[in-house]
Amino acid sequence: MGKHHITAADFDSVPDPARRKGSVVLRRDRAKTSQSDQMLFETPRDTTFVHSDPWRVLRIQSEFVEGFGTLAELGRTICVFGSARTHRDSAEYRTAEQIGRLLVGHGYAVMTGGGPGAMEAANKGAVEGGGTSVGLGIELPFETGLNEYVDIGINFRYFFARKTMFLKYSQGFIVMPGGFGTLDELFEALTLVQTEKVTNFPIVLFGTAFWGPLIDWLKGTLLEQGTISAEDLELFHLTDDPEDAVEWATTYHPEQPQGTEAARRLGPQ
Hints:
CATH architecture: 3-Layer(aba) Sandwich
Strand order of the largest sheet: 6-5-4-3-7-8-9
CATH topology: Rossmann fold
Number of helices: 9
Shape: elongated
CATH class: Alpha Beta
Helix content: 40-55%
Strand content: 5-15%
Radius of gyration: 29 Å
């Protein structure tokens, strides 16, 4: 047989070079797809995906990742809740400041919702006491931003992600007088303690004049009708003394079950 001489026509029959997409090999017509980076940087024609539930799941996941990563090494922390409408010249504001200072004096960071009012006062007390001040904000139609005394701040889109951070990274709540948001945090915590979703978690209600009527209703209506048990009324401590509030929140016995007498310490006797 004679030797075959390669001509230009022979090159037309050579298979198309292979293309790789990650670990995938593509040839011929399959190799003509766009590169992954090219598709990434193209302006999307349809943007409805950003309003879909799968995309929201990614946003929610990002809030948990951000929260866990930021707060994991925070150390001992107590949350102070209260009204954003508490005036700076009020006794409640000054008391929240004092509570913030007392908490850092006991070696605890102070965490709040990061807003104005009682939250700002507790953050201010923590800063003035030389401790760590944390604020977890939330997207609201009347958003005011984090107060100036927040050292570590995270803003959340979703209430439930924010609530998880309050409960996961604090060892107790001190609840000042407040509105629906304060009540929401309070009853969320009470429910989780009652159902043993969280254990050994002190909840202090500050202000007998404010909280007294609510407690009377709990006793006179819920307890009377049997929708709660008498033991449920022992899941919180009521006080008018800032030192007692801080003592209760910071000297809780974590080795004891929630319902034992040792765990229900009332502070200095």
